[in-house]
Design brief:
239 residues; mainly beta; Immunoglobulin-like; 2 domains; four-stranded mixed sheet; Invasin/intimin_cell_adhesion
């Protein structure tokens, strides 16, 4: 804390005898230093956009003591690497103008310290369809399968769905469940439909696959040493 403190120093010589000294002046004023801005991050709710989409970027910072920085007292300057593809104003609002990719950089100045952060954004054609595949279409109870997604734009180019919210559901969770990463887990014998849906630019696209769950086959261990052998054939009696 700030204020006045009295400090006492101990000096130890070679023969380990101690002598007390008082610092002159005896009053030392301690000043609490303000942590510096250490890093900056730029985020957006989505990283994929359709033409004419807009979004508000968010900029956050960390101080040198790992506390969150109050950027309301900072100066932030935004810049787009491809203004013809994705523009950005000085309030951090981006506007998708044409197909392509752009990196949006935010330069933050706070108490004389300058830090930069950036985010990569992409403008694509309207979403035409999504296709889901399962690495296994039949699993045992307790087994797992993984869903893989591929999206296609209206110009038939494919792209991944990173940055776009994806929702998985199972028509019968008592047979198999599916998590947000597309991992299916068998729960009981039966059939269920795994469905995935995506909303992009206000349009929903979906796809589905049937999943069959069965009970694992039972394994029997038979001890033939307890069976008498047929004297003539040398085979277990009864076989």
């Amino acid at each position: 804390k700030t204020g006045n403190r009295k400090l006492t120093f101990t000096v130890v010589d070679k023969n380990e005898s101690s002598i007390w000294y008082y610092m002159q002046p005896s009053i030392l004023k301690l000043v609490e230093l303000t942590p510096d801005l250490a890093s900056v991050a730029v985020t957006a709710e989505e990283s994929l956009f359709a033409v004419d989409d807009t979004a508000q970027l968010q900029v956050s910072g960390l101080l040198s003591n790992d506390a969150a920085a109050d950027l309301t007292v900072a100066s932030i300057v935004y810049e787009s690497s491809a203004p013809s593809v994705m523009s950005v104003d000085q309030n951090g609002v981006v506007n998708a103008l044409q197909l392509g990719s752009a990196t949006i950089k935010a330069t933050v100045t706070m108490n004389g310290v300058v830090k930069e952060g950036s985010i990569d954004l992409r403008v694509i054609s309207a979403l035409d369809r999504i296709e889901m595949s399962l690495d296994q279409e039949s699993i045992y109870v307790g087994g797992q399968a993984k869903a893989t997604l591929l999206a296609y734009a209206t110009d038939d180019t494919s792209f991944d769905l990173e940055g776009i919210p994806v929702t998985f559901t199972s028509s019968d969770p008592s047979v198999a469940t599916v998590d947000s990463n597309g991992v299916v887990v068998g729960k009981s014998s039966g059939r269920t439909v795994i469905r995935v849906s995506v909303i992009f630019a206000g349009v929903e696209k979906s796809d589905s696959r049937e999943m069959v769950v069965t009970v694992p086959p039972q394994t029997f261990v038979y001890d033939f040493s307890q069976i008498g052998l047929d004297g003539a054939s040398g085979t277990p009696a009864g076989f």
